[in-house]
Design goal:
Elements lengths: L9 H14 L4 H12 L8 H11 L3 H18 L7 H7 L6 H10 L3 H14 L3 H6 L10 H30 L1
Helix pairs in contact: 1-4, 2-3, 2-9, 3-9, 4-5, 4-6, 4-9, 6-9, 7-9
Pfam families: PgpA
Organism: Sporosarcina pasteurii (Bacillus pasteurii)
GO molecular function, one term: phosphatidylglycerophosphatase activity
């Protein structure tokens, strides 16, 4: 059965995702710095432009777009104190046992395989770059979901680069 509801075009969702990140103070360059740091040891020819291109590609994926839009919306609703209790307090305080923030971000990472999953775990644990800034902004906005979502984007983009690097190496080997 075909739904009579109007579908939202992917370009609109992609723009809304990038706009939401910017509205929350996250620029693609901030994420690119994390991707660069994660992948440079494995790819000496890596540039920031490669990292940004990979992030832009990752942000075209519906799974990531939807996760980002939902997570940012929940953070903003918590800032406005519009969540019902006890969820309001749990999200506002980024309670340690909450885990739904990581679950949403991790679900979005699965598209990019086990490298993305392990990279996400590393970033979630070590809070590199803007992820740390978002995680430690206590009292200056709620970023319960956003820090994990940025880790998800960075992990996915890093995984994408890792796979492409391997593909390029194999293509060069087959030419010899």
């Amino acid at each position: 059965m075909v739904s009579s509801r109007k579908k939202v075009h992917s370009k609109i969702v992609e723009k809304a995702t990038v706009d939401a990140l910017k509205r929350r103070g996250v620029l693609l360059d901030d994420i690119a710095e994390i991707v660069y740091e994660m992948q440079l040891p494995y790819n000496e020819k890596l540039t920031m432009e490669h990292c940004i291109e990979s992030i832009e590609s990752v942000l075209k994926k519906r799974e990531l777009q939807h996760a980002i839009l939902v997570g940012i919306e929940l953070d903003e609703l918590a800032e406005q104190r519009k969540l019902s209790e006890p969820l309001q307090q749990i999200v506002e305080s980024d309670e340690g046992l909450f885990g739904v923030d990581e679950t949403i971000a991790l679900g979005a990472v699965f598209t990019y395989g086990s490298i993305a999953v392990t990279t996400f775990g590393h970033l979630d644990k070590n809070k590199i770059g803007i992820i740390n800034e978002l995680d430690t902004k206590k009292g200056r906005g709620v970023h319960t979901f956003l820090d994990d979502l940025v880790a998800s984007i960075a992990a996915s983009a890093a995984s994408r680069i890792a796979h492409r690097t391997r593909d390029d190496e194999e293509a060069q080997e087959s030419q010899h």
